[in-house]
Amino acid sequence: MDAPLPQDHSRNPLTASQLLWAYRRGWFPMADPLTGQIEWFSPDPRAIMPLEKFHTPRNLKREVRRGRFEIRCDTAFDEVIRACAAPRRDEDLSWIDEQIIESYVGLYNLAGAHSIEAWLEGRLVGGLYGVHIGGGFFGESMFTRVEFGGDNSSKVCLVHLVRWLRHRGFVLLDTQFHNKHLTQFGCVEVPRRQYLSMLAQTIVLDVTWGRFSLDA
């Protein structure tokens, strides 16, 4: 089941078509912040968010009901990915460099990637982005701008993403790596071989993104 990544895919400039080729085989790229070299990963185990078991904490439910943020889709993809690339308070380096940004923006222009965005008083204060293939959504990164009142904004975006994925008939939400932040939502790990089997069944599904709506 394992699909080795050909050497030429680690040396050539990153492109949208290369991203699709890799994701279909269970791989995703990250840029080494020190060397600028694109490295490819296929974790074992792999983290996924079971859509049917997604858990929304009580305080987050209240935040979503408040409707404090204006939630949009695909209106500022470039700004979202660049915000995700910005240094975090607890991190000095980012795996999202300019070639990563350009390749995912290229994929977005082909309708193969999407962003969910939280806006407050006309300012982008949080969001997330990921890749769409078949019945799968492959989450890449998320960000929150607390300094602009965006606390919990990325979590609200995640809730709306899951609602939309369920509404459209998606069957897989891939989160790549497991962390404590995602545990609260029901994130689990599966062996890579199991993940690749799920992936093969997912990418052949005819699932479209559609016109995003909060009424889903």
Terminal Cα span? 36 Å
Overall outline: globular
Query: So what's the oligomer here?
Result: single chain
Q: What is the share of helical residues?
A: 25-40%
CATH superfamily: Leucyl/phenylalanyl-tRNA-protein transferase, C-terminal domain
Number of strands: 9
Total domains, how many?
1
List keywords for this structure.
globular, 216 residues, seven-stranded mixed sheet, Aminopeptidase, single chain, 24% strand, 8 helices, two-stranded antiparallel sheet, alpha+beta
Describe, in plain words, how this protein is organized in 3D.
- It contains eight helices and nine strands.
- The protein is an alpha+beta fold.
- It has one domain: Aminopeptidase.
- The strands form two sheets. A seven-stranded mixed sheet has the order 4-5-6-7-8-3-9, with helices on both faces.
- The longest helix is centred in the C-terminal third of the chain and has 16 residues.
- The radius of gyration is 17 Å and the shape is globular.
